[in-house]
Amino acid sequence: MKSNSLVSIDQCSKEDILRILDNARKFEEDPNRKVLKGKVAATLFFEPSTRTRLSFETAVNRLHGRVIGFQDASTTSSSKGETLKDTILMVSNYADLIIMRHHLEGAARYASEITDIPIINAGDGANQHPTQTMLDLYSIRKTQGTLDNLNITLVGDLKYGRTVHSLIVGMSHFNPTFHFVAPNELKMPDEYKNFCDAHHIKYYEHSTFSQEVINDSDILYMTRVQRERFTDLEKYERVKNVYILRNSMLEDSRDNLHILHPLPRVNEIAYDVDDSPKAYYIQQARNGLFTRQAIICEALGITI
Ligand code: CP
After folding, report:
1. Which residue out of 39, 53, 62, 101 is catalytically annotated?
2. Which ligand 1 atom sits nearest the alpha carbon of residue 285?
3. Residue 3: band (very low, low, confident or very high) from pLDDT cuts 50, 70, 90
């Protein structure tokens, strides 16, 4: 990484990514080590989270560090009007590392510019979710045996979905072919299609979640339509159940197909898919523990 903070996946070279994934594999073999003894990590969650916050906190605890922080900003002095700048500067007095999720795009980058301690972006609005990408890459490599030359189908909310935006950038080193499946209202933003063009990455856009696309995929990456990003709830109601993956749709899929989802899910994966050996979203979230242990050590300059 160019700095010790991780605010965007585009900071990471291919070598950075592969090193972090290799270190994550070591943590999967042994997640309980004393490498963070004496260190304090702050988790500042201005937006709700289950997996990201708890996996980060578990990562620190298993490495024998300590955690401070909040999961509800309404209990902090930001509810009295304290600015993000002052909050970050205060927490920097207490902790060695800040892990933050914020609804404003660019919030983590801004924080990294005003403090000397490393910032890890745990999601900033519809922009980026780089640690999710690292665990997605880990999960893809683990299930496919490689990151190279894969057909990856991204399904659902491709407009507001920060995980798919980060994944495009993270996969760009590995010659993927993308299929973007989204209704017109939630299409992949031009910014990311331009990125693909600039990096000679093949992509195809679809509004129908067809059997042909499913059968051609190595990875099917389902996403939730994010109610919290809509200002017009009628629009949300129109698109919320637009694509639902059911087990019967996997009959002729490739043997190596795996289904990923950053979670939480709402309706986009039927529960009958859970018993399929191709369903990988629960293990995917587990992989978040090991990849976040590797990311924390990278940010703090700790060699594994
Ligand atoms: N994937 C993810 O970011 O989940 P949480 O919102 O529960 O952290």
Report:
1. 101
2. 1
3. low
Q: How many CB atoms lie within 10 A of CB 110?
A: 18
Torsion of CA 118, 286, 260, 266, to 10 degrees: -90
Regarding the beta carbon of 132 and ligand 1, being less than 6 Å apart is answered: yes
Residues 164-179: tens digit of each pLDDT: 999 999 999 999 999 9
129 among known catalytic residues: yes
Q: What is the CA radius of gyration of the chain?
A: 19
Does the beta carbon of 128 lie inside 6 Å of ligand 1? no
- The first and second tokens of residue 136, run together, are 């997605």
Catalytic choice (2, 75, 80, 200): 80
Which amino acid is present at 198? A
DSSP designation for 68: E
- State whether the beta carbon of 262 lies less than 6 angstroms from ligand 1: yes
Exposure of 260 in the CB half-sphere (CA atoms within 13 A):
30
Q: What is the pTM of this model?
A: 0.95
Q: Assign 219 to helix, strand or coil.
A: strand
Can you tell me the distance from the alpha carbon of 263 to that of 302, in angstroms, rounded to the nearest whole number? 30
Position 2 confidence tier, pLDDT thresholds 50, 70, 90: very low
